[in-house]
Specification:
It is globular, with a radius of gyration of 19 Å. The chain has eleven helices and eight strands. The mean pLDDT is 91. The relative contact order is 0.15. 42% of the residues lie in helices and 22% in strands. Helix 6 packs across helix 8. Strands 1, 2, 3, 4, 5, 6, 7 and 8 form an eight-stranded mixed beta sheet that branches. The chain has a domain of 194 residues: Rossmann fold (3-Layer(aba) Sandwich).
Length: 280
């Protein structure tokens, strides 16, 4: 099996196992945390009545539902995700003008030149071969079509993720660090890399807008520590840790987050790219 297929299989196994279940368990918290980024990318996409739209990494279908409302009864939205539990949750919405495909958007056989918009909210950073994936998405677009997505910038620009990780890491077993070309949460943080990927995939010159928003992480440090141990980048480290290591990591995260507690909960900065590109 090629390295790309290995990575794709690993992503599928994660999102059909602990990743998908963890996302569902933390759904309300996650949606609250990224709500403003979602509103911004939906506004930028500006789906119009009658359009056909692809929602890549649609998850539980929240963005698909918003897009379906925008395109109206004469439009159509197709949500694509590799996670069976998330797609099942999306299908339960029973949207009249939307359908869902349980598949990898990188290789799914989309109808060629038939979509007006390819959209994604945090769903494009995990492709094993991003150039091939975006090439596949571009061929699905009409010549006048457009790509709009939001992705995280670099870890140092996202203290909401970096602060707990740095606090916990010294106390947990070593965790794999993705290389600069590996899929992962921050894989599209490097603007130059994203420009190269989209150019090689055949898109027109992309436009980037830096978006900075506070991220609500939870009501207090204790709640956040509990969630981090069950889902997210630290979950694997906690799963492999001894009880003593896990306790020290929890204490370290709690101490790091306590200064950020307020009546509104724990809030730390978040940073994304909003990216637009034409199909050419």
């Amino acid at each position: 099996m090629s390295p790309e297929r290995d990575l794709a299989a690993e992503q599928a196994a994660f999102w059909n196992g602990p990743g998908g279940q963890g996302w569902l368990a933390a759904y309300a918290r996650i949606e609250r945390s990224i709500a403003e980024f979602g509103r911004m990318v939906l506004a930028a996409a500006a789906a119009q009545p009658g359009e056909r739209v692809l929602d890549v990494g649609c998850g539980t279908g929240g963005t698909t539902a918003e897009l379906a409302r925008a395109v109206g009864p004469l439009g159509r939205v197709v949500g694509v995700d590799i996670s069976e539990p998330l797609v099942a949750a999306a299908r339960s919405k029973q949207l009249a003008n939307a359908s869902f495909a349980l598949d990898d958007a990188a290789t799914h056989l989309f109808e060629a030149a038939s979509y007006d918009l390819v959209f994604s909210r945090f769903g494009v950073m995990f492709f094993a071969d991003p150039v091939a994936a975006f090439r596949n998405l571009r061929q699905a677009l009409k010549p006048t079509g457009r790509l709009v997505f939001v992705c995280w910038r670099t870890p140092p620009e996202n203290p909401w993720g970096l602060v707990p990780f740095r606090a916990a890491a010294p106390h947990l077993p070593p965790m794999p660090r993705p290389g600069p070309e590996d899929p992962g949460q921050y894989a599209f943080g490097d603007r130059a890399r994203v420009e190269r990927i989209l150019k090689e995939a055949g898109f027109g010159p992309p436009a980037f807008e830096a978006i900075d928003q506070p991220i609500w992480m939870g009501k207090d440090a204790a709640e956040i520590v509990d969630n981090l141990g069950r889902f997210g980048p630290l979950a694997r480290g906690f799963a492999e840790a001894t009880p003593d290591q896990a306790e020290k990591a929890r204490e370290a995260i709690t101490a790091a987050l306590r200064p950020h507690e307020s009546a509104a909960g724990v809030v730390l900065p978040g940073a994304c790219w909003l990216v637009r590109a034409a199909a050419r």
